[in-house]
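Honest question from a wet-lab person: if I give you the sequences of every part of a complex, can you actually get the arrangement of the whole thing, not just the pieces? Trying it with mine:
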Amino acid sequence: MYDLNLIKSISQPSLQKIVLLVMDGLGGLPHPETGKTELETAVKPNLDLLTAMGICGLTDPVGPGITPGSAPGHLAIFGYDPIEFNVGRGILEAVGIDFELKPGDVATRGNFCTIDAEGLVTDRRAGRISTEKCIELCRLLDGIKIQNATIFIQPVKEHRFIAVFRGPGLSAEASDSDPQQTGVPAKPVTALIPAANTMADVANEFISQARIRLAPYSPANSLLLRGFSQHPHFPSMTEIYKIKAAAIASYPMYRGLARLVGMQVLKTGSTIAEEFETLARHYKNFDFFFVHIKGTDAAGEDGDFKRKVNIIEEVDRELPRIVGLRPDVIVVTGDHSSPAMIKGHSWHPVPSLLYSKICRPDQETAFSETACLYGGLGRIPATALMPLAMANALKLTKFGA
Amino acid sequence: MYDLNLIKSISQPSLQKIVLLVMDGLGGLPHPETGKTELETAVKPNLDLLTAMGICGLTDPVGPGITPGSAPGHLAIFGYDPIEFNVGRGILEAVGIDFELKPGDVATRGNFCTIDAEGLVTDRRAGRISTEKCIELCRLLDGIKIQNATIFIQPVKEHRFIAVFRGPGLSAEASDSDPQQTGVPAKPVTALIPAANTMADVANEFISQARIRLAPYSPANSLLLRGFSQHPHFPSMTEIYKIKAAAIASYPMYRGLARLVGMQVLKTGSTIAEEFETLARHYKNFDFFFVHIKGTDAAGEDGDFKRKVNIIEEVDRELPRIVGLRPDVIVVTGDHSSPAMIKGHSWHPVPSLLYSKICRPDQETAFSETACLYGGLGRIPATALMPLAMANALKLTKFGA
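Yes, you can. This is the full assembly:
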């Protein structure tokens, strides 16, 4: 929607503070019995009050009909055109666990998985082994050298790990080995361009060696790689917005995303109350806070309508911790919808609200998909949220004479 | 709005079926006596029910204020940026009558016309001669050879025909001979670029020879050419959307448009009931159906408010034939507005509705310009309709990690 250079040219520091609260996968679909979405079912007086004092609307992370992954969903909220600014899953995960990437590194996301005697994948998540087990298996594989490359294997959580390939002549233009379904063998990694031949060879040889080492560790007797990617080097939010930005997120990928756009990632406990406490503790030192709530998306993906409602209610109960700090601008939104009915991310536009003393409030008094449809923000691209938050925090000067 | 490559990269086959019902020129303007548009005047319980179960909005085929021709109007609905994807009228008409174009062919639309003794055009449509007469005259002209080119002349309907120029070194960059008014002579065809000199020479020589042959056939004693164009070779809908697409349209131009984007054109009767029966008969064999209703536009262009209302009501009466097939997604829209008050195409945004079980319904219960203004789709580019239909039919996967 906007050229970041335009925003950069008119942004200015101010004392005002912005809190951007992202409830992952916030948007939902009506429950067949009640006709109400998760957000419409939840009892959430504090979010409703914020809506009544503020302005709401529906945001499209990428565009109508497009279901965003977490990265494009968040990049849009941070103001980056999610089609122009593309980031691979492997890089995201690597940055998210504080792995120090070097120029040229190729990172992938990995799953430990189960294969049967014929080599067919029977469980893409190896029965969701414990994080402890994952750490043990990663140690087994970390540091393998193939041709001129070294492969670093670091645990993420449960069955998930990252593999970082370091060496001369590697390329991210390689295909996933993850077949994304069970009952079929893992795919060979293939070079998508001739320059990625070495990458594909190294990855396939690594997978072979890893299988031998993992053989005794059923159900985690093999692994799948996906999202071969290299560091994208985006302009930082500090550069664009002249803000001092902090991120509070309990799940690594979102910390990784925040780091990619130059936020300082704060150490935090993982409950909603702990995340909000972290915000309070660091409130003096930053003027922009990105707070990420994972639970809403996880519940939506599990198809658990009630749990999603409960998490929204939990956020609402804890919200006074944030409101009590009296931020000048509060934005509440999601990176995409994750309706329990769909059990996954979806394309439906996301309910979003913005509170500030100068937001020109609309007449909506409930934070819901239906109210947001009639809200003062209208239906806008998610990339408009940052410029709006910035404007309301007096961090944008006039464009043009 | 979207890069088709993006859509292509995330589209996937699914079993779900989409019906896209295009009521040509659907949007209207309020009748001065009742304050209600054609759509608001029509009694249409089935369309209203579909709106109540679905989601509605207003779509802009090209952009606010821009009145689209039929080609950009339809290309937008099919998801093609109507400014980027441009198609000449001659090509449209040629494809619409199943003329087999070869690479390099230049097609134009032709009218038989009446000229007086001084060569001034007195009737641009030769008194709308019968189709039989048109067929006879086309035979008279078909196959003329000039320089190294052969000119194919094929009847369309009444006074309308196509002329296809085949030969080396022809170019579509030539101006119309049709002066678009009476009382003046036909214009000479001129080359718009130097490379089109041969084209202009051949066309002008053809017109001279045709006039000699047509001289005894007053009122069809001459002809006018317009819309010199070559086959645009668009990416097909099958390629972009991975759908098996069928078109049901009784008027040649819309069949031609559908063929240009790779749809299979089904043989059909021309009434609304017959078109819907054609859909039912072929329902098993495709997962996407474009059904075109011409009557709404024709009535609008004639300034016949009541006839347009009647045709909307006829569509509504027949609609259960489609709904009864239980398509997963039904989209009802128009390629542009054709208000009876304006007697032609207009720029007003088009009422559009989308029904699916996972569309997140809005609160609107009537299919009308006014209701669509408040509908859950908001006001969106018409190019968003295909991605939305695809998403609701689970034919789009996630974008990005």
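Two things worth pointing out. The mean pLDDT of chain A is 95. Residues 4-85+234-392 of chain A form a domain with the Alkaline Phosphatase, subunit A fold (CATH 3.40.720.10).
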